[in-house]
Design brief:
The chain is an alpha+beta fold. It contains 7 helices and 7 strands. The protein has 2 domains: 96 residues, no CATH class; 75 residues, no CATH class. The strands form 3 sheets. A 3-stranded antiparallel β-sheet has the order 2-4-3. Bound molecules: iron/sulfur cluster (SF4). Iron/sulfur cluster (SF4) binds next to loops.
């Protein structure tokens, strides 16, 4: 499956999403892997529109974060409770985390999301299907820098390591 995006273009868009400047534009199709993989979705107190569209009983305080930060959990199947009939029922109001989530970050970094938890198997399958194109030397240089960042950096989770590698890859450009 192709992203139809050169690597450098995807990387720029991913960095903008991580800075909160734009939503991640992921061609998900019918895939709902990230909504059905037993993931807690953190929501900040500033996300008032999102919070207004989620029943309070589905939210609980986020451990180790200050007052007002909450988590949206998942049901006994590992599904987000806002996923209804295979679609996000609050799509226009979805949390910031959902707006910036892009499973192609695992393809880009070469990190095996499935190694973190078997509930993430569907995300790992999806990530394994993406393919980037590398039409210029800059695409190849940036890809190598992201991979070098992964080898050098440390983080408490695969996802955080992938994010840090994307955010700081320019320090690893040769
Ligand atoms: S809020 Fe919507 S996009 Fe986010 S995990 Fe739930 S169903 Fe998926």
């Amino acid at each position: 499956m192709s992203c139809d995006l050169p690597f450098g273009s995807w990387l720029s868009a991913m960095q903008a999403a991580l800075r909160g400047e734009a939503d991640a534009e992921v061609p998900c199709g019918d895939c709902t892997a990230c909504c059905t993989s037993s993931q807690f979705v953190p929501i900040g107190p500033d996300e008032t529109d999102t919070l207004a569209h989620i029943p309070a009983e589905l939210l609980f305080p986020a451990p180790r974060l200050s007052k007002g930060h909450v988590l949206l959990g998942y049901d006994e199947r590992g599904h987000c409770p806002m996923l209804v009939d295979g679609r996000c029922s609050i799509y226009e109001h979805r949390p910031r985390t959902c707006r910036t989530y892009d499973c192609r970050i695992f393809t880009a970094t070469g990190l095996d999301v499935d190694a973190e938890a078997e509930e993430k198997f569907d995300i790992a399958v999806r990530a394994g299907q993406w393919q980037f194109s590398f039409p210029t030397d800059d695409d190849r240089r940036r890809h190598a820098a992201v991979r070098a960042a992964v080898r050098s950096l440390h983080a408490p989770s695969i996802t955080e390591l992938a994010v840090r590698a994307v955010e700081s890859h320019e320090d690893f450009l040769t």
